[in-house]
Design brief:
By secondary structure, this protein is mainly beta. The protein has 4 helices and 11 strands; from the N terminus they run E-H-H-E-E-E-E-E-E-E-E-H-E-E-H. The strands form 3 sheets. Strands 3, 4, 7, 10 and 11 form a 5-stranded mixed beta sheet that branches. A 4-stranded antiparallel beta sheet has the order 6-5-8-9.
């Protein structure tokens, strides 16, 4: 695949001090403090966590050219695609005004490439196979009363110009109307190397982009790292994310890869933006 950027960072990356100052003191179940991120990522998100001083608003990144709103309401999105199983649990927290309360009724989409770097549902002229009529590794779920959703997917592969990542989008109703928060999860490079050495991930060419050299990751990817643990022949990871429904500049629809506020959406050749 040609080396191009499929999305660009949007908004501000908050420092620990800035996040605490912005959100203030708050307490709720299923939250994590700025200082306790690592421990909370590993905690099952469907269980209540100890009260925390504030929830964390993560940086948004534009959706890129590969988001397709297929409205696939499903938890298991693999469609038989080979790869190491990855169980994802996300808790969405309403960070508006420092409330830090679980956000129920939000729709969470995730989408990603397969083990060989191919996305479904798009006509990408750089892919070795046409997967435009397929829908693997795409789906959405609606958050429950605790703000939680779960997905079963696979550990993603790589393609030229990007490090290993999973896209996600959160859609909710805000006082000003529809709200969208779009970003990406990443993985530690040591784990990437181990997984990509597996037979399912072998493909022609050499991986050309790591976290350290990915321009999108450098816009705040260290705040969006998953911490998978071994589980059932694959991995399991949990993540808690605060969204500020009052931030209309972040919450505007992203526009199918054309970039959100402050961002520049650029697609690869052969992919409609």
């Amino acid at each position: 695949m040609d080396e191009q950027d499929d999305d660009w960072p949007v908004g501000q990356v908050l420092s620990r001090r800035a996040a605490v100052r912005l959100l203030g003191a708050g307490a709720a179940a299923t939250l994590f403090s700025v200082a306790g991120v690592a421990a909370s990522r590993r905690a099952p998100v469907w269980q209540a966590a100890a009260p925390a001083p504030g929830c964390v608003v993560r940086p948004e990144m534009t959706e890129g050219p590969f988001f397709v709103d297929k409205q696939l309401d499903r938890s298991d999105i693999r469609d038989g695609r080979p790869g190491r199983p990855l169980a994802l649990a996300l808790t969405v927290v309403n960070a508006t005004g420092g409330q830090c309360r679980p956000l129920a009724g939000a729709v969470v989409d995730i989408w990603q490439c397969d083990a060989t770097g191919v996305y479904s549902a798009v006509a990408d002229g750089t892919q070795s196979a046409d997967a435009s009529a397929q829908q693997f590794l795409r789906g959405n779920q609606t958050t429950n009363a605790d703000g939680g959703v779960r997905f079963t997917t696979i550990y993603p592969g790589w393609y030229r110009g990007r490090t290993v990542h999973v896209h996600f989008k959160i859609r909710a109703q805000a006082p000003a109307g529809a709200y969208e928060f779009t970003s990406q999860w990443y993985f530690d490079e040591a784990l990437n190397e181990r997984v990509l050495a597996g037979a399912e991930y072998v493909r022609p060419g050499r991986r050309d982009t790591t976290n350290a050299t990915d321009s999108i990751y450098r816009g705040g990817g260290d705040l969006l790292l998953l911490a998978p643990t071994p589980s059932a022949g694959g991995f399991a990871a949990a993540y808690v994310l605060g969204v500020d429904l009052a931030d209309a500049s972040v919450g505007r629809p992203d526009g199918m890869g054309r970039g959100g506020p402050g961002g520049r959406g650029r697609g690869r050749r052969g992919v409609p933006e």
